[in-house]
Amino acid sequence: MKFVDEVQILLIAGDGGNGCVSFRHEKNLPNGGPDGGNGGDGGNIYIQADKNINTLIDYCFEKTFRAGNGQNGQKNERTGKRGQDVTIKVPIGTRARNIETNEILCDMTRHEQRHMLVKGGIHGLGNTRFKSSVNRAPRQHSFGTKGENRKILLELMLLADVGMLGMPNAGKSTFIRSVSTAKPKIADYPFTTLTPSLAVVRIDYKESFVIADIPGLIKGASDGAGIGIQFLKHLERCHLLLHLVDIAPIDESDPIENTKIIIKELKKYSKKLATKTCWLVFNKIDLLSKEKSKELTERIVKEIKWNNKYYLVSALNNEGLKNLCIDIMHFMLNKQYSLKMTNNQKSESKKNNFLWNKNNK
Questions:
Q1: What stretch of H or E contains 173?
Q2: Is there a binding annotation on residue 328?
Q3: Any binding-site annotation on 181?
Q4: Which CATH code, of 3.40.50.300, 3.30.1490.20, 3.60.21.10, 3.40.1280.10, is assigned to 162-338?
Q5: Rounded to whole angstroms, how far apart are CA atoms 347 and 358?
Q6: For Mg(2+), which residues are the binding ones (predicted)?
Q7: Which residue from 199, 267, 292, 355 lies 20 to 30 Å from 58 (Cα-Cα)?
Q8: Do the annotations mark residue 83 as ligand-binding?
């Protein structure tokens, strides 16, 4: 199945039905008074997350969605039928953005999470609603309002704990194969990975984390070179980034310069993404002696003024991977604990504010 992570669609909510002008004419009640009913409300359009969907490809072919219009009111005070709602199902991790205002309308992060994107029109009133003691035969009624319509950009962003980035042929796919059961394509030419992919890294029967692999970046990616930076958005939800560096590039390029290129492209794309916790992972140390690998990594770290963690691994030989994955798991557990404590503190603060306000009324 083709991986599609961004589509534009047009949503048109239903119009509200008009109110009815009608008078009761029965055999024994020739002037029975008004009996015009209200119109029905227009249908809404909702978006809903579905764990069984993993791409937005369906919306490449169907780009316009219309909800049903509300029916007009009828005599005998019968209300018009409500317009049919429409629900758009998307993968978990999809974000809906208003194209005209660039406003993020919702972020679908849970299975069966539901959000209204456009609201249907309000029903019109029948003449029965205008009846009063001084106006016993009203001929007034109101029209239903128009439903909303919007152009929406759907953006799929993968849900992962850890994100991997680096130059093409840095060994990201080999790394994924070595630490998980995923089987991404591996070859000795650039851009073997063309679409983002997810893999589950299991430390033991209880602890695991999800890692995301994206296509490699090259110099000028922010200007569209190579595959560009279109897939970097999939790293925005990650708590930790792994910057994989080929310590012995087959094209004999400078690993120091390659490292700087990725850091520069990341900053160009998003300052927020560039400030995420990131660890350097120097790969392919099996191609050099231990002394040469250590000397080169220390020179790179010093040259780019790196202050965070860094690791030396060989994804092909599984060297250093176990310690790296254990450290990642510890990082994730600490992150989850911190988030839990922060949420508890917020709840406690709200509770204390409520009690303080209650006691000081």
A1: helix 172-179
A2: no
A3: no
A4: 3.40.50.300
A5: 16
A6: 173, 193
A7: 199
A8: no
